[in-house]
Amino acid sequence: NQRFSFLGAIVVATFSLFMLFSSSPLSQSFGAVAIIQALMMGENFQWLSFFLVQVEGMFASVERARRFISHSEQEPPCVQLIDISLQVAWPPVGSELEFR
Fold first, then answer.
1. Mean pLDDT for the stretch of residues 85-96
2. pTM of full prediction above 0.90
3. Which end of the chain is more exposed for a tag (fewer CB within 10 A), N or C?
């Protein structure tokens, strides 16, 4: 954050010194607009770095989830071998409902 503030201050100082010591026929309004745009550029760099860090964090979380999914063991199937050994008509006694 402070790096971008320092970078913006350097750019504004450079524009200001250029406009102050320049003998070009540029108007003062052009110089003011250039300095204002340079100030806004520093703030835009800060927002850009913030959002890039957020996007990088999201990609890192997706990579961790993919790694977890690819390295985890597969669940056993729903039908297991012990289920096959059960009788077809299980339970044979007491499985009838009576409505009165």
1. 64
2. no
3. C
